[in-house]
């Protein structure tokens, strides 16, 4: 992935500076000050077309932005706003203003659960089934019934109820809805990979600096094995995620094996979380369970994000379904 190193450095510096000045809150809300700062830098609508107020960047740059925020434990709805909600509005040629947005897909009863950042957004891009098709509307949050909720790290995960008969909306093609689902799933894979890398780095640093029985923890073979296993799982998750991202961008989200690639990435990421989080807490010992140590900012995030936009079991089943299909060409699934 070819991304300007200066841009990557700037992204990391912005989030590192913010994190240094703002200890992690127990209740997470969209920070208006940070949002304005990111907007001034052109990062809030990083992938939006320039003619509609965006920065004209692509998913490679967006993945670096999501990773930079995750590595610094900064919670902000960049993926939901830019890569999902505003992207969908652009695709169906609906106007996009400066309002902060998220997106949700309603159940048949007009309810969406676990919606990221709904209560703190200005508008929600709502998708619902209308007979044999789906419709989309860009709705002010004041017109929706929103019950606040939170995930494991305190990020808003709200319940949204809408009266679809009052929304109107416009039809959306099935392929766009499938893209929305795959893009949402891939954003979480990117974020989890970033925190897994941070967990491994923290484990290496702790094992190298912590002296036990007269020598660093890193000199004990059992600890070396824990680190090696965690690093291997994190590397596998990143490789699968980057392969899915390369396939998506290279095919403009149209490759016939894209769903398999995304499912594989999410499966690898989900299972890697179990090993990396477990091993990291064994390496860190008691200090890793304290609120003061930063380990929990990453381990809890990994466990929270891996089950959003599809559980680990769901993505495992998608991988199995693709590989067991009667006409499945495994070589094509893996190499195309």
UniProtKB/TrEMBL annotation:
<dbReference type="InterPro" id="IPR009075">
    <property type="entry name" value="AcylCo_DH/oxidase_C"/>
</dbReference>
<comment type="similarity">
    <text>Belongs to the acyl-CoA dehydrogenase family.</text>
</comment>
<dbReference type="GO" id="GO:0003995">
    <property type="term" value="F:acyl-CoA dehydrogenase activity"/>
</dbReference>
<keyword id="KW-0274">FAD</keyword>
<dbReference type="GO" id="GO:0050660">
    <property type="term" value="F:flavin adenine dinucleotide binding"/>
</dbReference>
<protein>
    <recommendedName>
        <fullName>Acyl-CoA dehydrogenase/oxidase C-terminal domain-containing protein</fullName>
    </recommendedName>
</protein>
<keyword id="KW-0285">Flavoprotein</keyword>
<dbReference type="InterPro" id="IPR036250">
    <property type="entry name" value="AcylCo_DH-like_C"/>
</dbReference>
<feature type="domain" description="Acyl-CoA dehydrogenase/oxidase C-terminal">
    <location>
        <begin position="169"/>
        <end position="307"/>
    </location>
</feature>
<dbReference type="InterPro" id="IPR037069">
    <property type="entry name" value="AcylCoA_DH/ox_N_sf"/>
</dbReference>
<dbReference type="InterPro" id="IPR009100">
    <property type="entry name" value="AcylCoA_DH/oxidase_NM_dom_sf"/>
</dbReference>
<dbReference type="Pfam" id="PF00441">
    <property type="entry name" value="Acyl-CoA_dh_1"/>
</dbReference>
<keyword id="KW-0560">Oxidoreductase</keyword>
């Amino acid at each position: 992935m070819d991304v300007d190193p200066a841009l990557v450095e700037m992204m990391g510096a912005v989030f590192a500076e913010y994190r240094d000045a703002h200890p992690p809150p127990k209740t997470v809300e969209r920070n208006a000050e940070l949002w304005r700062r990111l907007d001034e830098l052109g990062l809030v609508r990083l992938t939006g077309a320039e003619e509609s107020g965006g920065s004209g960047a692509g998913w490679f740059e967006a993945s670096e932005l999501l990773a930079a925020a995750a590595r610094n434990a900064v919670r902000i709805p960049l993926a939901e706003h830019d890569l999902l909600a505003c992207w969908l509005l652009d695709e169906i040629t609906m106007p996009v203003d400066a309002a902060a947005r998220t997106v949700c897909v309603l159940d048949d009863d007009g309810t969406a659960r676990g919606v990221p950042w709904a209560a703190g957004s200005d508008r929600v891009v709502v998708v619902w089934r209308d007979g044999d098709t789906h419709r989309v509307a860009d709705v002010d949050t004041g017109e929706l019934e929103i019950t606040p909720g939170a995930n494991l790290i305190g990020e808003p995960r709200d319940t949204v109820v809408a009266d679809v008969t009052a929304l109107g909306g416009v039809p959306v093609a099935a392929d766009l809805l499938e893209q929305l689902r795959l893009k949402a799933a891939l954003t979480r894979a990117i974020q989890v990979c970033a925190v897994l890398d941070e967990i491994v780095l923290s484990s290496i640093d702790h094992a190298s600096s912590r002296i036990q029985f007269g020598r660093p923890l890193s000199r004990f073979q059992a600890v070396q094995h824990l680190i090696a296993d965690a690093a291997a799982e994190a590397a596998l998750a990143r490789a699968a995620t980057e392969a899915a991202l390369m396939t998506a961008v290279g095919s403009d989200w149209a490759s016939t094996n894209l769903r398999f690639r995304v499912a594989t990435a999410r499966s690898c990421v989900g299972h890697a979380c179990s090993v990396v989080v477990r091993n990291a807490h064994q390496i860190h010992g008691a200090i890793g369970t304290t609120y003061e140590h930063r380990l929990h900012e990453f381990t809890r995030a990994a466990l929270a994000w891996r089950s959003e936009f599809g559980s680990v079991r769901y993505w495992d089943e998608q991988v199995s379904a693709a590989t067991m299909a009667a006409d499945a060409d495994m070589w094509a699934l893996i190499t195309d």
